[in-house]
TrEMBL record:
Pfam families: FeS_assembly_P (PF01883), ParA (PF10609). This is Iron-sulfur cluster carrier protein. Belongs to the Mrp/NBP35 ATP-binding proteins family. GO terms for molecular function: 4 iron, 4 sulfur cluster binding; ATP binding; ATP hydrolysis activity; ATP-dependent FeS chaperone activity; metal ion binding. Residues 16-91 form the MIP18 family-like domain.
Amino acid sequence: MPGQENMTDVTVIRGNVYERLSHVIDPEIGRSVTDLGMIVAIDVAPSHSTEGVRAPGRFDVTVHVELTVPGCPLTQTIQDRIDEAVASYPGLELVPHIEVGAMDADKLTGLVSSLKAERRENPFNKPGIKTRIFAIASGKGGVGKSSVSANLAATFSALGYDTAAIDADIYGFSLPGLFGVHSQPTNLNGMLMPVTAWGVKLISIGMFAGADRAILWRGPRLQRSLEQFLSDVWWGQPDVLLLDLAPGTGDMAISVAQALPNAELVVVTTPQPSASDVAVRSGLVALQVPLKVRGVVENMSYFDHAGERLRIFGEGGGTRVSDRLTDALGYDVPLLASLPLEPDIREVGESGRPAVLDSDGSLADTPLASSFTALARRLIG
């Protein structure tokens, strides 16, 4: 029959394009666009010139996409990935055209219900969970705990780990500013998509309306905030989850121990005795709750200037904390890293980019980035 060969070509192309789209991952949910039901139709037709002459080996491919919500912030990213999957089809020249719509309420409800049923409450307490969880703690404010959390998360991501971070410092949240985040999480019928910045999936109370007001939560309400961050946010299955805790040994540390008994505590201190003495108390919380202290990070340990290493804040604080926690807890609590004092941490961090990264998101070629890389590798090892 005339045209049957073309129809066979079109049918084969349509099936192959769909298979290629099964490898296009929604950047928020972490599933393929085909698994999520976002590809509703694929139209394939031979391309013709403006004079109506068919162009051999060239086809127009129109992909009809339904996004989870109208105006999805990652619409362009999804479109670019679909374009690439279609345009890189081997052996033929496929010209991609994308028609974008949004799921209706019933379809979205069904998708969210299936995701929630699969996840079931706190996803990080399932047997066999692969995620390594590090809770970053300090005895007092001002030691750079949040900067350590942000740069460590960015380092893990740049090293190729699927990385998530929760700003569990409800009172003094700072991760949104350190990552340059000014948007809110996408809400899919009550399930939140974390905001991704510099490769890290983030959630913070600072991303929500009214977050600039003073927060006076305690007890059950504070614990519920962490539970919501864990169970009402679609995290997927990250390799690493970091929690930036509030300073001290208050309610949030206890909530973390209850919600994430597999978390490992990393205590941040500075060299001077006043900071290290208080830091010990944040590690000793492990005597009251089932948390293992993974180790100690000494921040602002030294400053290299004109070939001379200056110990501006003294020295030995990290070692003191390590030794005292090892004695008190009965197992080795090592000094994991001594991080340099770098003006870039403040200057670059305040611009919304973790200081360990270059502007393209790769790890910078600096002593600071090298220190964080060694720390990340030691933690994950």
